Amino acid sequence: MDSIDIFLFVAEAMIVIGAILAILMPLIKSLSDPGSLVKTGAAVVALAVVFFVMYSIADDTVLPRYAADPFNLTPELSRFVGGALLTTYVLFFVALIGIVFTEINKAIK
């Protein structure tokens, strides 16, 4: 095992630790203010609703070359990936509209 493999394992461990801390630390802090948990829960539910709407819109068509080895793409996985992409697009445009609205609102005030 050379140094590149060791650095990759360390980087993966740091990503996992960072993800765990990014989830746990706000939860620990919000225990003193339960109202913030309601807002977070509402945001998670809204995100899930957007994903499931986009998932239901997504197409499950798989081209024959992607259904074979090495991809082995199934219609369910294709629909999931399509739903994730559509969710990303919708959230991007919502954020873009929010930025434009905020800038126009600041310019008016």
Key terms:
membrane; 83% helix; 109 residues; transmembrane; mainly alpha; transmembrane helix
Question: What would your notes on this structure say?
Answer:
With 109 residues, this protein is an all-alpha fold. Helix content is 83%, strand content 0%. It is extended. The protein starts with a helix and ends with a helix. The model has no long low-confidence stretch (mean pLDDT 92).
Structural class: mainly alpha
Distance between the termini: 61 Å
Number of domains: 2
Strand runs, count: 0
Shape: extended
Low-confidence stretches: none
Helix content: over 70%
Proportion of residues in β-strands: under 5%
SSE blueprint and pairings:
Layout: H1 3-30, H2 34-57, H3 64-67, H4 75-108
Q: Would you summarize the structure shown here?
A:
The chain has 109 residues and is mainly α.
